[in-house]
Amino acid sequence: MVAFTIYWFSVYRYGIFYALSFILWYFRLSWVGKKQWFNKYPKVQYFLTEGLEDFLFMIALWVIIGWRLGHVLIYWNGYYFSHPAEILQVRKWWMSFIWWIIWVVLSLFWFLCYKKASFKDILILFDIVLVFVPFGIFLWRFWNYLNQELYWIPIAQLPLWLADTLNTLWLSHVYPQIDKLQRVNTNFLSMLLEGLLILWIQLIFLTKMVKKWRYRIWQLSTNFLLCYSLIRFLLEYLRADSQLEFVWFCTKSQWFFVFFTIIALLLKLYFYKSDKFNLPLDKTEKCSK
Q1: Is residue 118 within 8 Å of 43, Cβ to Cβ?
Q2: Strand, coil or helix: what is 9?
Q3: Cys-Cys crosslink for 49: which of 33, 104, 170, 242, Cβ 3.0 to 4.6 Å?
């Protein structure tokens, strides 16, 4: 949806929200770099300071490519294979957050290896990035709401007590491009749960680590993967848009989240058991100011 037009050039809402997301990430990651908690790990500190622009550019590039590829490959039952010209029409139902995760992980892993970061450095950087990703999710879900995208099941299909609760909390909405029914406003639910709740959890864990000056590798990454997967799995039951495609008793998306939940739990167990992943932070006078 167009936000405004300057002469012949149209600026779209999703472009504004993408830009705002990456600006916020830049300042948050820069803030971590300035704290110098990771001075003991020079490559990590480099990508949080001098190398931050290159690091964020790689994330931004694969956010766009990964989201589009995911939508093309997973949804609409092969529609794009018979209509290849529409693959580049990114303003039309083009996002797949699942494949955003996969492609960004793969691309960043390659990029950091190319820059000769160690495996430990790579894991730490993923942790730091995933502390602040919920900022972006919050903004993207708000953009979905403004664009009246991702409509959900009618309130009338829910138990009366739950329908009344959602109405009281202003979590119901009419999507006029679909019909005049009052539907669950899971755009706002997603903003609250996928965005603010996960961000709050991540900041609590990061704060505890800093206070103890001990950092356990991939605790933050697995927190994000586990929390996001569980929340999205549950919210999928309220989803009623055109991407709601069931395979047996779960949607295509839910099967991915089942897989991600299992992976998150296995990784948590693996990293928790080994003391070699429990690292010291740089406790200096400058950091404590």
Answers
A1: yes
A2: strand
A3: 33
Distance CA 152, CA 161 (A): 18
Q: Tell me the two tokens of residue 62.
A: 């694969």
Q: How many CB atoms lie within 10 A of CB 107?
A: 17
d(CA 204, CA 212): 12
- Please give the Cα distance from 106 to 60 (Å, whole number): 13
- Coil vs helix vs strand at 148: coil
Quick check: helix, strand or coil at residue 5? Answer: strand
Q: Which of 39, 231, 48 is nearest to 131 (CA)?
A: 48
* Sequence-ordered alpha helix ranges (H) in the chain: 13-35, 42-47, 52-74, 79-82, 97-114, 119-146, 160-168, 186-190, 198-212, 219-235, 252-273, 285-288
Token pair 């839910």 in the structure block, residue: 254
pLDDT at residue 245 in the model: 66
Residues with pLDDT less than 50, the chain = 242, 285, 287-289
Q: For residue 110, what are its two tokens?
A: 């390659």
Q: How many CB atoms lie within 10 A of CB 133?
A: 22
The structure tokens listed for 68 are 């589009």
Q: Is 188 left (phi over 0), alpha (psi -120 to 50) or beta?
A: alpha
Q: Is 283 left (phi over 0), alpha (psi -120 to 50) or beta?
A: beta
Q: Is the pTM of this model over 0.90?
A: no
Chain position carrying tokens 């569980």: 230
